[in-house]
Design goal:
- There is one protein chain.
- The protein is an alpha/beta fold and 249 residues long.
- It has helices at 17-28, 40-50, 62-76, 99-109, 111-127, 149-169, 187-190, 194-203, 212-222; strands at 8-12, 32-37, 53-56, 81-84, 130-135, 174-181, 234-237.
- The protein has a seven-stranded parallel beta sheet, with helices on both faces.
- Strand 1, helix 1 (17-28) and strand 2 form a beta-alpha-beta unit.
- Helix 1 crosses helix 9, helix 3 (62-76) packs parallel to helix 5 (111-127) and helix 4 packs parallel to helix 6 (149-169).
- The longest helix has 21 residues, at 149-169.
- The radius of gyration is 17 Å and the shape is globular.
- The structure holds nicotinamide-adenine-dinucleotide (NAD).
- Nicotinamide-adenine-dinucleotide (NAD) binds at residues 13, 15-19, 37-39, 42, 57-60, 85-89, 108, 135, 137, 181, 183-184, 186-189.
- Nicotinamide-adenine-dinucleotide (NAD) binds next to helix 1 and helix 7.
- InterPro entries: NAD(P)-bd_dom_sf, SDR, SDR_fam.
Length: 249
């Protein structure tokens, strides 16, 4: 277990699913954790359950992201860790996709990443220390999936953003990395339907879906002091789903 005592961590989309798993692992590692989410009811309940704090956030709104970081610095005097995790993934095939579908996806998944990372940098630069962990996906950067062209583009785009941002921040003591979950059992994944879940379980070598805490542990490593020499990198956490099988096996 990595020790995050005296560290202040912000987890976006932290009220449910993977964000909640990340928040739980960071709390257990000793961090002061702020859960930022658009869902106030779930966010407050989650904060109470985990021993964390809840702040409102609409990640698609730049002013909301700036206000959130200002409030965190005002109340906790520092920001050491940002887990930029918020994301949506409704399916829509290419033939029926409208500009609105496309824009809604990118305003949360891609623009939200930019807003949160940019808003956090000043507080991290002032202390010469920061750990930023993005939640990307295997869909887009490594694999494709029918119905997710807009989602795949957003998740691949996050990684391009991350690599250039990592170079811009390298001399400031700030690292930026990404976890790439496979299929993790959350409300968002359940919304894809039972048929999808069964299809995915069959495709994963372990034949099990991942848990939010599986991603939490990977994020905790990248958020630790010990990961200081890792930046601009990705960590796939998918039960081996994207491993190609040898034709001779
Ligand atoms: P989820 O739908 O279960 O939870 C998402 C959380 O984000 C919710 O608490 C929701 O209220 C919050 N949220 C939504 N819109 C918001 C907004 N505008 N501002 C602030 N908060 C907002 O999703 P999840 O499955 O936990 O996924 C979390 C992240 O992991 C996403 O980026 C997703 O793309 C990624 N991911 C998930 C899986 C998976 O299998 N579940 C796989 C790969 C990547």
């Amino acid at each position: 277990m990595f020790d995050l005592t005296d560290q202040v961590a912000l987890v976006t989309g932290g009220a449910k699913g993977i964000g909640k798993g990340i928040a739980r692992v960071l709390v257990n590692a000793g961090a002061t954790v702020i859960i930022a989410d658009i869902d106030e009811t779930a966010g407050k309940a989650c904060a109470e359950e985990l021993g964390a704090h809840y702040f409102y956030l609409d990640v698609s709104c730049q002013a909301s992201c700036k206000q959130l970081v200002s409030a965190v610095v005002r109340d906790f005097e520092q920001l050491d860790i940002l887990c930029s995790n918020t994301g949506i993934f409704p399916q829509c095939n290419l033939a029926s996709m409208t500009e609105q579908h496309w824009d809604d996806m990118h305003s949360i998944n891609l623009k939200g990443t930019f807003f949160m990372v940019q808003a956090s940098l000043e507080a991290m630069r002032m202390r010469g220390y920061g750990r930023i962990v993005l939640t990307s996906s295997i869909t887009g950067p490594v694999t494709g999936f029918p119905g997710w062209t807009h989602y795949a583009a957003s998740k691949a785009g996050q990684l391009g953003f991350m690599r250039s941002a990592a170079l811009e921040c390298a001399r400031d003591g700030i690292t930026i990395n990404a976890v790439m979950p496979g299929n993790i059992l959350t409300e968002g994944l359940q919304a894809q339907g039972e048929e999808y879940l069964e299809q995915m379980k069959a495709a994963i070598p372990t034949h099990t879906l991942g848990t939010p805490d599986d991603i939490g542990h990977a994020a905790c490593f990248l958020a630790s002091k010990e990961a200081r020499y890792i930046t601009g990198q990705t960590l796939i956490v998918d039960g081996g789903q994207v491993l190609p099988e040898s034709p001779e096996a």
